[in-house]
Amino acid sequence: MSSTGSTYGDIHRYEPARESTAAAIAIVLLTIIEVVFVFLFTYGFVSGWALTDTGNMFLGGVLAVIFVDLAFILALYRKEFLPDVMIVKKRRRKWEDLYVREEDVDGVSFDGSGGGAWEQVKRAVYPYYKR
User: Fold this and answer.
1) Residues of the chain with pLDDT > 90: what percent?
2) What stretches pass through the bilayer (predicted)?
3) pLDDT digits over 58-90, tens only?
4) What is the pLDDT of residues 38-57, one digit of tens each?
C-alpha cells in the first residue's frame, strides 16, 4: 500500500508483516533453547565453574551462545512480525545539520569583523554557539 502524500509524517509505503506459523514455531523453540542456556549459565556461575580456566572459557562460550540465540530470535521477530513502513521525513540541508545559518556555510573570515578573535574561536570550536 502506497500513498501519494508528500507532507511531513505521511506514510509513504506500508507492507504488512507475513506472520508465518513456521517463524512463530521457530521463535518458540529458540526461546526454549535460550531459557535452557540461561539456566546452564546461571547454574555454572553459582556453582563456581568460573574459578577454573576451562570452566571460565565454557561459561564465556555459553554466554556467547545466549546472545547469538537472542539475536536470531530478534531477527526472526523483526522480519516476520513487524510491518515495513516508510514515513516521509523532512530533508535537511548540510548547514541545518550543524545548526549553522545558511549565510555562514562557507565560514567567517578571521579579519576581526566578527565580534573579536575570542568570539570567532568559540564559533569555530563550538558550532552550536548561539543557535
Assistant:
1) 45
2) 21-46, 58-77
3) 999 999 999 999 999 999 999 999 888 877 766
4) 999 999 999 999 899 899 99
**Residue 88: closest CA among 11, 1, 4:** 11
19 contact partners, CB below 8 Å, separation of at least 6 = 80, 81
Reference 83, options 35, 26, 28, 16; nearest CA is 16
Cα–Cα distance list, 118 to 93, 105, 110, 113 (Å): 28, 20, 11, 12
Name the DSSP class of 33: H
pTM above 0.85, yes or no: no
How many CB atoms are located within 10 Å of the residue 41 CB?
19
**C-alpha span between 113 and 34 (Å, rounded):** 65
DSSP notation for 82-105: S-EEEE------HHHHTT--GGGT
Relative orientation angle of helices 21-47 and 53-81, to the nearest 10 degrees: 160
In 3D space, the residue among 87, 98, 105, 79 whose CA is nearest the CA of residue 24 turns out to be 79
Distances (CA, A) of 83 to 16, 41, 87, 106: 5, 35, 12, 42
